[in-house]
Design goal:
The complex is a heterodimer of chains A (418) and B (279). Chain A folds into two domains: 253 residues, 3-Layer(aba) Sandwich (Rossmann fold); 140 residues, Rossmann fold (3-Layer(aba) Sandwich). Helix content of chain A is 34%, strand content 19%. Chain A contains 13 helices and 18 strands. In chain A, the strands form four sheets. Chain A has a seven-stranded mixed beta sheet with strand order 3-2-4-5-7-6-13, sandwiched between helices. In chain A, helix 13 links the parallel strand 15 and strand 16. In chain A, helix 3 crosses helix 4. Chain B folds into two domains: 141 residues, Pyruvate-ferredoxin Oxidoreductase, domain 3, CATH 3.40.920.10; 73 residues, Alpha-Beta Plaits (2-Layer Sandwich). In chain B, the strands form three sheets. A four-stranded mixed beta sheet of chain B has the order 1-2-3-4, with helices on one face. A two-stranded antiparallel sheet of chain B has the order 6-9. In chain B, strand 7 and strand 8 form a beta hairpin. By secondary structure, chain B is an alpha/beta fold. Chain B is globular and about 70 Å long. Classes of the chains: A alpha/beta (418), B alpha/beta (279). At the A-B interface, strand 9 and helix 8 of A face strand 5 of B.
């Protein structure tokens, strides 16, 4: 691999990244946008290869990394490719020969990657990918936030972050989880809302990150041990290969939980697969969602103490047992699902389907509210009306989802009496 | 040329009853279009006692019994390759073997088969094929063992489709990788006697050969054997008949005509000629 040399006379430094040019010796409080925070976190994990194709709103993460590579701070191969499909193919192959690899995408880029996403799982490569969640384009083009990543996962691990601090931490956590589980991990933040918001965060010292993310030997494409990777098999073998992956995936939630604990011990920031707020409330009702909306709800809850919040951090594998336990322990009767994705007349959209499936044995009443598509802001208005509508829900009959915060006519909001 | 292929036909007295899309694991009739497959593929797998094995060959019943190690089968032989070359002018035996099937099975008549051929082919080709199946019908040699198969008894071995004996999911390597033993590539076509697929025997004349190695470069199956001589140089040493599929690339590229071909002895494969992908 060629390492680019610093070109004298060309100064293209990305100002916020300058923090990461020197060694960070102690926890440093600063403020920056989510994408640069991720670029910084990835820099600290010392990747060997960075290969991504720019797409809004993911761009600055790779831009920041190009700068630290250009300035000589990071000895990594920064590879420009012609598409997201090329990016994920290159990244998977680089990881398969033993490199630590970072890539990033969003929206249509994620969909263009789809063809090669399963092989990263099949080859068990500890690849990490950032996703700045963005709508996919139909019927109109939108560069703003929706959840495209819930469409399909192909067996990738997926953790979702609420704010800049969490997405910075996720950049490091993903490397830890990938390396330990030998499955690729994607970490998601809401496009623009987090990717382009300047927020406060505390940087972890380089030494701590190095200790958290040691490079260990693993199975790689190796000329000393030749083998056929990704070769064709007949019906006599394919199903065994799939079950082999299924078996390997089984301990991943446990690995994630342990990783969160280890990370918490080192940094003081304790995360979990699912986090809960105010579940012992009078209405036995809780919101359940993930990403940046959780912060909005937590703020809103300071004046609405009769509902709780369940925040899903590990979206894949879905922690269904943990969710069941939480609902049972707190005796919750109703769940209000907020989802930034829809499914056009299917029973429920994807995130809600995971929750409904997990809670099927418990018979918890639930409704899915589709909010914030294509970057529409999700505010206290949505939470107020969702809570009110949920009070009237007595069974699981009728449509289980509704759009919230959408104009019906010029002067009318769907489902809201003004 | 092509790899061994299985195909199935399921018949019912009532056409509406053929609803199953399963493969056939216990065939009552098996037609083998290439006798070299007898020793390579377990062609009699699943045939119940009294079932029929129909082979395109000039061998006799006892030889076939020895090769397939079954004495409880009715056996029919037909030299379909000769009929194909005589009448069709090409070594395509697919339709011809059906003449033998009609003869032993009595499931339908040679006239019905001819009608079917008229629906599939037109004009001269249809006529040639009908003539060929009629000749096959008449020339089929039948060796009966005095038992016949019961169509209404289900004889499939349970869970045959799972291929027990192969590695299970707990025995597979990580990432679905198939590792080679001791750095020797022992995978893919090297493990298969692909030489049996070819129609032609490729011959090499040592005296004419100039060791230019063009055939060695062009061979897609590494079937040109070279050996290092006392002079420290590599020399042509022959053709690997176990892996030569007789594509004839070497024959075409040889600048001194040191490579020639001849039809394999006896009936050869059911191969389609180059311009037809129909089989």
């Amino acid at each position: 691999m060629r390492h680019p040399k610093k070109v004298e006379g060309i100064e293209m430094s990305v100002e916020p990244m300058k923090l990461f040019f020197k060694e960070i010796k102690e926890p440093t409080e600063t403020a920056m946008i989510g994408n640069y925070a991720v670029a910084g976190g990835v820099t600290q994990t010392d990747p060997d290869v960075i290969c991504a194709f720019p797409i809004t709103p993911q761009t600055q993460s790779v831009e920041g990394l190009s700068d630290v590579v250009h300035q000589g701070r990071l000895k990594a191969a920064f590879v420009n490719v012609e598409s997201e499909l090329a990016a994920i193919s290159y990244s998977t192959a680089a990881a398969a020969v033993g490199a630590r690899v970072f890539t990033a995408t969003a929206s249509q880029g994620y969909l263009l990657m789809a063809e090669a996403l399963p092989m990263a799982v099949g080859w068990r490569v500890p690849l990490t990918m950032m996703i700045s969640a963005r709508a996919f384009n139909a019927p109109n083009l939108s560069i703003w936030n929706s959840w495209e990543f819930v469409l399909t996962d192909f067996g990738w691990n997926c953790i979702v972050s609420e704010n800049v601090q969490e997405t910075y931490d996720a950049a490091i956590l993903s490397v830890m989880i990938s390396d330990k589980s030998l499955f690729p991990t994607m970490f998601v933040h809401d496009g623009f809302i987090i990717s382009h918001s300047v927020q406060k965060l505390t940087l972890i010292p380089d030494k701590t990150v190095r200790e958290l993310t040691p490079k260990k030997p693993r199975h790689t494409i190796n000329t000393k041990k030749p083998g056929t990777w990704g070769g064709i098999v007949t019906p006599s073998f394919f199903m065994e290969g799939r079950k082999n992956l299924d078996e390997a995936k089984q301990p991943v939630l446990g690995i994630m939980r342990e990783t969160f604990k280890e990370f918490g011990k080192a940094t003081g920031r304790q995360y979990d697969l699912i986090e809960t707020y105010n579940l012992d409330n009078s209405s036995k009702t809780a919101f359940i969602t993930m990403g940046s909306m959780c912060g909005n709800i937590i703020s809103w809850m300071t004046k609405n103490k009769d509902v709780g919040l369940i925040k899903v951090r590990a979206y894949r594998p879905f922690p269904y047992e943990e969710l069941q336990k939480i609902v049972q322990e707190h005796d919750l009767e109703k769940l209000i699902i907020l989802e930034k994705s829809d499914s056009l007349n299917n029973l429920l959209p994807p995130f809600s389907t995971s929750i409904a499936t997990a809670l099927y044995p418990l018979g918890t009443l639930l409704r899915s509210f589709i909010v914030g598509l294509g970057g529409r802001d999700v505010t206290q208005d949505e939470f107020d009306i969702a809570k009110k509508k949920m009070e009237a829900v007595k069974d699981m009959k009728g449509p289980l989802y509704m759009y919230l915060g959408v104009r019906e006519t010029k002067n009318k909001i769907l489902g809201v009496d003004m | 040329m092509g790899s061994p292929t299985e195909s199935y036909v399921r018949l019912s007295l009532n056409e509406d009853l053929v609803r199953s899309n399963e493969q056939v694991y216990a065939p009552h009739f098996v037609s083998v279009l290439d006798p070299s497959l007898l020793g390579e593929v377990d062609v009699t797998a699943g045939i119940p006692e009294g079932g029929w094995l129909i082979v395109n060959t000039v061998m006799n019943q006892l030889d076939i019994q020895d090769i397939v190690k079954r004495k409880d089968l009715n056996i029919a032989t037909i030299d379909a390759t000769r009929i194909a070359l005589d009448i069709l002018g090409r070594n395509i035996t697919n339709t011809i073997i059906l003449g033998a099937l009609v003869r032993v099975s009595h499931l339908f008549t040679i006239e019905e088969l001819s009608d079917a051929i008229m629906m599939r082919f037109k004009g001269e080709i249809a006529g040639k094929n009908i003539k060929a199946i009629q000749q096959a019908y008449e020339e089929t040699c039948i060796y009966e063992i005095g038992k016949d198969v019961d169509f209404f008894v289900h004889t499939k071995v349970p869970w045959q489709q799972v291929d027990l004996g192969l590695p299970g999911y707990k025995e597979l390597d990580k990432a679905g990788v198939w590792y080679c033993d001791e750095n020797i590539i022992q995978v893919g076509s090297d493990q298969v006697n692909t030489g049996s697929w070819g129609e032609w025997e490729i011959l090499w004349d040592k005296d004419t050969c100039t060791d230019c190695a063009q055939c060695w470069y062009i061979c897609p199956d590494f079937a040109i054997i070279r050996e290092k001589g006392d002079d420290g140089l590599w020399h042509m040493a022959g053709i690997d008949i176990y892996h030569c599929k007789s594509c004839q690339n070497c024959l075409n590229i040889c600048p001194v005509n040191a490579i020639t071909k001849r039809m394999k002895q006896g009936p050869a494969s059911c191969a389609a000629p180059e311009e037809s992908g129909g089989n």
